[in-house]
Amino acid sequence: MEIRCKIYRCVDPGGRFNWNFILGLVGILLLNGCQSIPSDLMKTFPEESTQYIYDFPVQLGLEWWYQGRVLEDGQEESYVNQNTVSQVDGLGEGSFMFSVKTSNQNNLGSRESHYQMDSTGIIFLGSEPGTSLERQLVPHPFLQFPIVLGNHMIQIDKKDLDLGVDLDQDGENERIDVHGKIFYVTKESVTVPAGTYSDAIVIETQMISEIHLSTNKKTFPSVFFARSWQDRDTGMVKLESRTEVFLALVQLGDNKVIKIQEELVGVRPNSQFQ
């Protein structure tokens, strides 16, 4: 998932500083302009219309609709986000690839993300359009099967990558180390606009990135934390994330804090997929 920023030419069309976008952390982004939630949106999957593989729903044209909020610099924006399974290709021996288009996650950008899935889990393969940093990070784990509560896994552990951005404007891109873990925390009940999910799995992602300035070799961190609630038959029903970039440590400006929440409004199997 990804966010934005407005410093040192790292600017998105909406003018927001996007550190999760730069870091290429797990994300699916697409900007289709103003959206509204369809009035005929179903709030549950019809049992007969969706195939469940390893307790993760994947079907061509399957849609998830979310209501989102972004809080940055004391200002809050609301938005609607639509995720659609845009491609499913079998690879043989129980493995397949699938792609997801996202219309407006975090109220930004445009992206189609690609995954590979088998009985051991889901691997993130990258996205279009991607970034130079993302291409250095993929492939990396997205989910692990079976999900065992109390377990955790290393998602990313890479050092001395090209950030792809010249933050200190000396003509040289900064370097970055990225360290991420995923924790399978507990099961609990969660209520969202689509309804109450009494047995949702809580998954936490912790990502710490250290950015090294080329001018003076100083280092400062960016910390990303996300908590998602996953229903075995539906997929993600709620997401909360927080990104903090400690710019003040190296006199690049005030620290940035961005909070995002998305809640499932409803789902719809391939009714409008072209």
Salient structural properties:
mainly beta, 12-stranded antiparallel β-sheet, two-stranded antiparallel sheet, 2 helices, 16 strands, globular, disordered N terminus
Q: What do these coordinates show?
A:
The protein is mostly beta strands and 274 residues long. Helix content is 4%, strand content 55%. The protein is built from two helices and 16 strands. The protein has helices at 19-23, 132-137; strands at 4-7, 10-11, 52-53, 56-57, 63-72, 75-92, 95-102, 111-118, 121-128, 140-144, 152-162, 175-192, 195-212, 219-231, 235-245, 256-268. The strands form three sheets. A twelve-stranded antiparallel β-sheet has the order 10-9-8-7-6-5-16-15-14-13-12-11. A two-stranded antiparallel ribbon has the order 1-2.
